[in-house]
């Protein structure tokens, strides 16, 4: 264990921020840290939109299910899969790049690049004493988000990132046991053991909620996730992606 691993393992989502905007230097440090992340074949298939306009932040909060911390934070970033610049590259270099841009593989590359960059941004922010919360809720209404942020074709807003100084810190949620996540040499096929690990984790999570809420909540992880997965949400995504000329061929 060292300073970096301690920082990584102390992560928790923050949903209450001080009314204190980030400085320009802090924003640039976070973005430069994001850019230092690995990128597939040096493609750099992502863009980051910083949202400072209060009305736009309020609208994004509305899109995200009226999450107040989308509007009230030190700075709000939106990470986008971006293959628009690669279409421009094709025009600049007189190369036929569209079939590659429209492939499922390059769409996956863009999503992975954006996620890697975002996690670097998170570690940079947390190393400076800030807290963060990822906001997948902006995908509730990507048509509205795209119009609000004026994203062109071949650019897909993926998630937001609220950053700022915590005014309140949530408890750290216990993660799945290491042996349930980590497989060596091949995927474990012990179904009985698999279920036993989940039941053990259910007991840990139920106790976590029980202590956190003073007995008002004792749900299990599989119950929580099963109920969430049963509800079909954001089922428009394929049509939206294809409408943005990422045809996933």
TrEMBL record:
InterPro entries membership: Flavin_OxRdtase_Frp, Nitroreductase, Nitroreductase-like
Gene Ontology molecular functions: oxidoreductase activity
Domain named Nitroreductase: residues: 9-165
Keywords of the record: Flavoprotein, FMN, NADP, Oxidoreductase
UniProt keyword Transmembrane helix, yes or no: no
Pfam hit, one: Nitroreductase
Keyword flag Zinc: no
Coiled-coil stretches noted in the UniProt entry, renumbered to this chain: none
NCBIfam families, alphabetized: PRK10765.1
Family named by the database record: Belongs to the flavin oxidoreductase frp family.
Protein name: FMN reductase (NADPH)
């Amino acid at each position: 264990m060292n300073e970096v691993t301690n920082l990584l393992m102390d992560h928790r989502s923050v949903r209450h921020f001080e009314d204190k905007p980030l400085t320009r230097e802090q924003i640039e440090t976070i973005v430069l840290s994001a850019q230092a992340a690995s990128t597939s074949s040096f493609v750099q298939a992502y863009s980051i939109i910083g949202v400072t306009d209060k009305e736009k932040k309020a609208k994004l909060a509305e899109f995200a299910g009226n999450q107040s911390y989308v509007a009230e934070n030190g700075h709000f970033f939106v990470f986008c899969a971006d293959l628009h610049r690669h279409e421009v590259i094709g025009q600049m270099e007189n190369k036929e790049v569209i079939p590659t841009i429209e492939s499922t593989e390059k769409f996956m590359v863009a999503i992975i690049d954006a996620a890697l960059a975002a996690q670097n941004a998170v570690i940079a922010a947390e190393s400076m004493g800030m807290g963060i919360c990822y906001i997948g809720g902006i995908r509730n209404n990507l048509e509205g988000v795209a119009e609000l942020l004026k994203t062109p074709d071949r650019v897909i807003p993926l998630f937001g990132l609220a950053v700022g100084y915590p005014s309140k810190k949530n408890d750290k949620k216990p993660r799945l046991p290491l042996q349930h996540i980590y497989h060596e040499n091949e995927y474990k096929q012990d179904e009985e053991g698999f279920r036993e690990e989940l039941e053990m984790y259910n007991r840990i999570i139920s106790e976590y909620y029980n202590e956190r809420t003073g007995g008002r909540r004792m749900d299990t992880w599989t119950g929580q996730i099963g109920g969430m997965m049963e509800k079909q949400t954001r089922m428009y995504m394929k049509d939206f992606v294809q409408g943005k000329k990422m045809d996933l061929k």
